[in-house]
Each structure stands twice: as C-alpha cells, then as structure tokens.
Amino acid sequence: MKKSYKIEVDCANCANKMELAAKKTEGVKDATVNFMALKMNVEFEEGADVKAVMQNVLKACKKVESDCEIFF
Amino acid sequence: MNKKQKRMLRRIILAAALLILFSLLPVEGWLRFALFMIPYFLIGYDILWDAVKGIKNLQPFDENFLMAVATVGAIALGDYKEGVAVMLFYQIGELFQSYAVGRSRRSISQLMDIRPDYANIEGENGQLEKVDPDEVPLGSIIVVQPGEKVPIDGVIEEGESTLDTAALTGESVPRDAAPGDEVISGCINLTGVLRIRTTKEFGESTVSKILELVENASSRKSRSENFISRFARVYTPAVCFSALALAVLPPLVRIVMGIPAEWGDWVYRALTFLVISCPCALVISIPLSFFAGIGGASSAGVLIKGSNYMETLAQVKTVAFDKTGTMTQGVFEVSGIHHSSMEEAELLEYAALAESYSSHPISQSLRRAWGGEPDKNRVSDVTELSGKGLTARVDGKTVAVGNAKLMELLGVEYKECHSVGTVVHVAIDGAYAGHILIADMLKPTAKSAVAAMKAAGVKKTVMLTGDAHAVAAQTAGELGADAFYAELLPGDKVDRVEKLLAENQGKEKLAFVGDGINDAPVLSRADVGIAMGALGSDAAIEAADVVLMDDDPMKIAKAINIAKKCIRIVYENIVFAIAVKLACLVLGALGITNMWAAIFADVGVMVIAVLNAIRALRVKNL
Description:
The complex is a heterodimer. Chain A is of the alpha+beta class. Chain A has a single domain, classed as 2-Layer Sandwich (Alpha-Beta Plaits), CATH 3.30.70. Helix content of chain A is about 40%, strand content about 30%. A four-stranded antiparallel beta sheet of chain A has the order 2-3-1-4, covered by helices on one side. In chain A, a hairpin with a 4-residue loop joins strand 2 and strand 3. In chain A, helix 1 crosses helix 2. Chain B is of the alpha+beta class. Helices cover about 50% and strands about 20% of the residues of chain B. In chain B, the strands form four sheets. In chain B, strands 10-22-21-20-11-18-19 form a seven-stranded mixed beta sheet, with helices on both faces. A six-stranded antiparallel beta sheet of chain B has the order 2-1-3-9-4-7, with no helix packed on it. In chain B, helix 4 packs parallel to helix 20 and helix 11 packs across helix 12. The two termini of chain B are about 30 Å apart. Chains A and B meet through helix 1 of A and helix 4 and helix 9 of B.
C-alpha cells in the first residue's frame, strides 16, 4: 500500500536524511521524500499497521533531523 | 518569512552587531575569548548541537559537522573573529536558501493552484451543501457557481457559461459551455451557474491526474541529478580527507627536511578546505532548477513527466509528427472558392442556403463558412440526388450544388480543381458559377509551429500520416516539413520512427508528436513522446512523456525551448559551482586565500546558483 504525507523540513540534505531514516523503519517497504513538493511517499509492507509505522517513521526522522514534521 | 526564519534573522543581526563591536574593543587574552564566545554560541548553538547528534548517530560528514570542526579549529588557533564569521555567513546562507526555496515553492504551487477544495451538491430542499470532492459518487449532480472551480469531470445537464481553462492549458481565451458539453475539472466557471453530472470520480478526474503527474515528476531523476548526488557523496569525504592530509603531511615533511613545521599555518589551510567542502550549492540548486522548470512548463500548459524527459527534450533534433489532429484540425472546412462568376461570399451563400436542409458534414462546413443563419423561406423545391448532390430553388433561381457527376447530369460545363480535397461545384440557372473546395484545414499556427521548431534547434521535421500521398505531399509542402511518409498504417509508423531513430547520431534525440489517438505505441517508442490536446484523454496522458494540454502545435517548440533553458541553467550551475569550489581549494591549499574568501565562495556560490535556478520558472517569452 502506498500513501503520501505532507512534511515540513528546512533543507535538501535534511530531506535526504529523512528519506534514509524512513526507509530503514520497520514496516516500510520503500520511501521517497520530495523536498520541493514537501511530500513523503511511503510504501508499506503487507499487513503493516500504518498508524504505528508512521509513528516510528516520525521518531526515526526526528532523531536525524530534530526540526522536521510529518503530518498524518 | 515564517516565524523560524524571522527568529534566525534576529540571531544573525544580533551576532553580527556583537562581532563588529567586539572586534573594535581593545581587549586581549581570556576576556577577548570570552567575549567572542557570546556571538559564536548565539549564532551557532544549533549547528554545534546537530554536529554532536550526527556523531552520536554515526553519521558524521554532514555540513553541521564540517562547520563545527572548521570554526572550533579556527577558534583554537586564536582566529576568533574568523571562527564566528564563518558560522555567521553559513547561517546567512542557510537562511537565504530556506527563504528562496520557500518562495519558489509557493510560486510554483500557485501556478498549479487547480486543486478544488470542495464540491457543491444539492440537498433535499434545494440548498447547496459543500462536500469533499473525494466523497462525490459517480453520476451525481454537482452545482458549480460563477467564480468556482469545476471539481470533477462531467457533462453539463443545465446552464450555460464560459469556462476559464488558463490554469490547465495556459490558453487565456475562455471557452463557451452549454448543456451536453463535457467539462473537465480544474476549469474556472466564469459567468453562469452550471449543473454537472459527474462522469468520473475525483481521483480519476483530470485535475487529480495532472496534480499527481506534476508532483511525481521530480521522482524521475535526470542524469544531471544522479551525477550531482553521486558527486556530493564522493566530494565531501574527499575534501575532508584532503584537509586532514593537508594539516598533517606538509608539516611532517618539513620536520623531516629540518625546517620549522608551522603547524598552525597548515591547520588553518586545512580548515579552509572544510569550509569549502559543503556541496550545498549543487545539492540544492540542481533539483530546484528542474522543479522550477517543470512548474513553469505546467503553467504554460506543458506537462513534463520527469526531469529525465526535460533532459531528453532539450536534445531533440528530429521531430516526427502525425498529420490529422496534430497539424490539421481534423474537421472539414471550406479552404477555397475558385472560378467564381460572382462575389465569393454570394456563391457561398447560395450553396449554404441550397444545402440548408441537409445534415451532411459537407453541408455543415458550407454553412459554417458562410456564417449566417439560413432563412428557409428563401429555399424551396429541394431535390437530393444521392451520391451526386442536390438542386433547389433559392430566391427564385435554380441552384445545383454537388460533385462533377451532378454537373455532367445537368449538362453544365465545369472546371476541374487542381487542389486536393473535396470539390463542390455550383451551377445557378444552368450556368457554371464556380466551385468550393473543402479540405481538412491546417491549424492556424501549424506553419509557424514548424518554423519555430527549426528555430528551437530541430534539424529535421518529418510528417507521418495514414492519408493519401497527394494530400500528404500538399500538407507537408505547406507546412515546410523536411520529409513526409504517407499511407502508413499504425504499425508502419512504429517502423518508420525506428528507422528515424537509427539515423540519429550521438546525443541527438527524436520526439514524436501525436494527438494520442491510435499512436500510443509510437509515443512510447520515440525518445520522448509528446501527446497534444490531451485534456480528458486518459490514454494519451498515460502513454506520453510530455503532455500538451491544448492542441496548439506552437507548444511543441515552446516545450523544447523551456527544456533547453532549464538544462542550460542546470549546466551553468554545475560548472560555476564546481569551478569556484575547485579554484578556492587550490588557492586555499597554496595559502593564498583565507577562511573569509572560502566562506564567501561557499555561501555566495549557493546564493547565485539558487537565484539562477529560479530563472527556470520564467517561461512566458519562450
């Protein structure tokens, strides 16, 4: 399943860091961050609990870039 | 500026003021150090903190870490002023970048401001209810009031209005809409209230498709973008290790040679390296250029599906295009009146009146060309002669309108026509009055479109058509196309395009332009497939790489020009940024330049590159 989220982040490199962090999160099959459109597209693994996974994604992103925000 | 940026601006101003003030104070030793630490921590505390976190997360080599090492190093060497200044300028650069990116993001999203927020549906008592367009089921009636956007594709049930399609097509002349017409979402209703029966769900509607396409465009990375991300991955660590080598190796060599090591001097040079090591200018400006280019293009009604297609489009040297519907209007129009014994308009009037009872496409085009409303009282005794034409009494005169067979039947001597198309002969009271030529007309801009492509650097224009050889030859001649291939079946078009592809050398690319009907295989076979007049045609939007929202062939050259401008900006930025950085690295290693120059090089290049990137947004005059 694929979903798209609005994000807030300041710099291009920070967006890349978020992408890496999101990709490594459990339950996430693939993730891409589009800095220009301020969008994060997340592809979840089969049967993943979207809400819970996104909580972890946000936590992982906050760890690498304390200034970021994901709206879900 | 948002809140965060304003706070940063205050920090910058305060730190800059303190820096200047303390540089003027005649203090020495520990007091001087303590004083300079105030602006340093004021401006750099977040960078230092992020650097510590980066190390903790085992992700050093980010720009925070580099800035922290460079400034702490400078301060340790006693260059307090420089340490603070580097941090200060770095923050100014970051602020500028976030401001510029925010601005351009906003102006691009304004261009693409076609997402409808709500749909009006009628409640039980006739009152309007605003609902999420996503929740409107297929086939329901929605009401669109003047000034509102059409939220979902559908057919007009009731009401007449004019629609502004500028946001979709870049075309500023509004379109008329009447009951029975199909309307596409994203248009703005200008004058009357419309009741529309939806024919699609919101997610499948034109507006959703377009937004999805534009937003996902930047995920198809171009070769330049891939080059930059590979470059950035190598560049930063490479510069860091060279900095380390520069700090350690020359002093060691000097010690071996028995001259003073001058550690401080070499460490300073190495720190200068670290300041230059941030690839920010490239990392931010290249994607920004593409994003601005794609945004600017979509505001002109040209949707480009990815940065990679932008790159290909800029290298197009051969354009192959379809004839019917692409260069011609695909409908029959009066294209000429020859050998007329009376005023041409009068001849047309007689013919149109005689044909006023007929619904044949040719009769319709005669009436359209005449332009008047036929007064049927002037027409009597209409006799249709199947396959030949008809005779009628118009204003008391006997008018015969039809083909050569009709003229032979009536024994009227007629003149052959040398032009290509359908010929309608007219005889009045038994005497030949001339003939009217009806043909599929070129679009008004078709000829200048071919010339514009040439001006945009296209070397060869080729017309492919399924039409007869004579018609194709004439059209190609009128257009000024370099070559044409006629009587092609859809499969033949693919073969022909493959042959043309084989003729291209090196980086020359081939674009195919079609109207999206029956030419999906050719669109996907070409280096870049351009579909035109694609509003409402899902198949074309799917198959093509570039979608022209309206059917004006001038947009082909425009798309090529937009792509060329965007790519030129990308190359300018790459060359400029890398050249300046390399020059500073060399000068820094030789000890000619200092940290001030390095930070100016880093921030200045970034500022210029970002400003240059934003130029890609402006496409009006291309």
